[in-house]
Amino acid sequence: MKAANATTGSTGGPARILVVGSGGREHALAWRLAREAGVERVLAAPGSDAIGAEPRVTCFPAVAATDVAALTGLARREGVGLVVIGPEGPLAAGLADALVVAGIPTFGPSAAAARIETSKAFCREVAAEAGVRTARGRAFEAPGPALALARELVAAPRSPGVVIKADGLAGGKGVTVCDDLPAAERALAAVFAAGGERPGPRVVVEERLVGREASLIALADGQTALALPAARDHKRLLDADRGPNTGGMGAYSPLPDLPESLAAALVETVHRPILAALARRGSPFRGALYAGLILTDRGPVLLECNARFGDPEAQVLLPRLALPLAPLLLAAARGGLAGAAAGLGLHGPLLPTTDDAAVAVVLAAAGYPEAPRPGDRIDGLGAGAARRALVFHAGTGRDPDGTYRTRGGRVLAVVGLGHDLAAARRRAERAAGAITFAGLQRRHDIAADLPPEVTRAPAGAGGLAAGSGR
Ligand code: AMP
Ligand code: GLY
Question: In total, how many domains does the chain have?
Fold first, then answer.
């Protein structure tokens, strides 16, 4: 509670907040936090030209997101009352650990707790301990036994294939979904060829599951979890889920096939048991616990955990949140979410949302994902900022004359809001269509993957049953 007066705003939330990162997710965080009552200033490090153009936001472009010492110094010097860590890199680098030692409230887990994302083997271990259902599979240190399991899984009756996951952070490139054994052999060879000798598991081999995916992200304070609405990311580059995997080409929320009753059950059967397991291990998780799920015809199964908000999920979720975010993030950082929820009169583990649906369409640079080309001039940004549309910058830079140019793989996320998904989608499409740059790549089927009549709950609406898994 040190320096509470200097760092706490009139609403009990933090007056000065430091957002760490520079992408579209961090733009959405800064945009959202800077417009909340009680927040006097948002600092962003390094931030971006577009983030710095938001009212009440100041960027520190010379401070890298993984420069733990510089960020800790900046937070101290600037009297920051809360640090919100966007990407996984700084978490893995121990930024949250250093900030907590410095006495600065931090939304983002310790490096030890962030292993739930940074090691797929660790994630499976914790899920098993927590009784959370995952795909059948195992972690391996050597290629021989890994290949043997892949062979067994591919040979199973009606097997759709096998999934090979490199252990450790791979920037979304570590997972290969294989149709057959030769593909699995190639993926395993690639994992074991990369990187040098290191102890511990190198790869996870899993049965391939079939179903729609969903992201359910909860604010967590080590024990209590309060979930944002469910969202769905579109990971493949091209329409109809073709082409290579990307960081995410679009997202939408809510999900007609993941009703609130199921979301609430998932918080109880996935997030809370995982938080409890991490706490028992002495690594309480404070931050955004992201469950990546697949909705199979036998019920939901956990595919992965992330230790942060999703990108572009955050861009559709943050505009839909009906409560001020800053006090909730601070409560999570301080271990006080249960008290905050009671104070807000919340019943159950779901955060209230506005009546809006949201659809985000990502505009990506020429050459993405392999070799994104920088420097293309972006036109139509003014027209893109239409009524009920938001433009979050993921990878842009601004010339001295105000012209924005591409600078990164995913360039923009254009979000449409509307009374239902169809209306939100129309707004996103119209706004995205107004923006042009050379080599622009985008999908035209975001949020169009569900037939309108799909409103029934998927199988297993009682939550995610423990069992199977091993
Ligand atoms: P992950 O990082 O583990 O979520 O994997 C990235 C993507 O790979 C997921 O979003 C899924 O599309 C796919 N994936 C991962 N595990 C499986 C699995 N067991 N079955 C089918 N697809 C999977
Ligand atoms: N959109 C997926 C992720 O943030 O990991």
Answer: 4
